[in-house]
Amino acid sequence: MLTALYLTTAIAYTYYPNIIFNVFTLYLLLFAIMLSVHRDSKFMTLYITLIYLLTDSVISPLLTLLIKAMPFPISNTELLLKSISLVLNLITLCVVLYLRKHHKSGIRYSVKLLPKKIYSLLIVSLALLGTLCVVETKIEEKKNEIPVEISDRVMSVLIALTVLSSLVVMIFMLMNCISKFYFESTSQLLNKQVNIQLEHYEKIEQINRDVREFRHDYRNHMICLHTLLKNNETSKAMDYLCSITDHTIRSLRSFRSGNSVADAILNDKCGNARAHNCDIQFNGVISDRISAFDICTILSNALDNSIEACQRLPESEEVRIISVDCSVDGCIQLIQVKNPSVSEDSNHKTSKADKENHGFGLYNIRRTVKALNGRVNIPSTSPEFILQIELMIPEKAVPVPENPDVQEDEGFDLKQLRHI
Length: 420
Description:
By secondary structure, the chain is α+β, with helices and mostly antiparallel strands. About 65% of the residues lie in helices and about 10% in strands.
């Protein structure tokens, strides 16, 4: 009903001579439509209606100036302006109806996220811009009646205020974009941490299965060994024993750093490194008082960079070693990550194709270490890239997920973990 009335009023506004009545009715119906969309917030109803009015006050003078600047004469300028205004009203109506039908809840949620300062700045900027356009139009119409000096002063003040308000809006928008990028990267890192932890649990569950299978086949293995030794086939028995032992050792390999999150990261990155002909050697201890988020940021990015550096090396059958040495000296955690490298870049700039993400990883390490009152040092980049980190260990322990006990009959409810 409101939509039909709005459309009728828009047409009447274009062709009916009583402009004041039509404008009042048109904007009143627009307010009613906005009120039906934002029933719970009278403020948003008034705000969006005001935004529309200010936008219309900007567009109409601009259209007037544009039409007057045409190289060919237009016989009925007023009718053309009203027709364009009708089209814009129809477009506005269609947009409002579409958003109301398909994105009503999403728009409400997005609007609530905007700071109140942005609302005020948008209103001020549109008001100044609308005033500037209207004044320019009036000055153009009565340029012979208004002194040039006065018109220039008025326009200069309005332009300065409009530019200033626009710059402030741009600065706030830029700050919001930076905040959005930061929180998105933080969210991705947290999701990555959860996935690493889940993979760690899956690997431990696989170890449990391997141990159970080995125990199940233990009697059969002993029978085979007994038969080989009884037949004096010592070499075959040794080979058979080595194959069993090697399989078991490979399956049971895991890291024990003292920090369960660090263990999960090391195990995950070790599997990734082996897929690229690399291996991770860990030595030392990592304090469990370092938060899961901080150790994930530091260790994940450092190992990712090391693995990528090894991938850039010339192909070779030799396994590339990534060494991670950690120690605790009083209340200071020391971490050193070394990997072979061919880079000669003294500024430590990324040579990766995805430069943005790679550089952001090292930036995240520096930012996290700085927040912990630590420092990052890169004493060498070739032939070994060495990353040295010193950071203060928090006084209070930060709770982290505990490693599940590796027992024969205990398993893990991974389906529940995936809903974290």
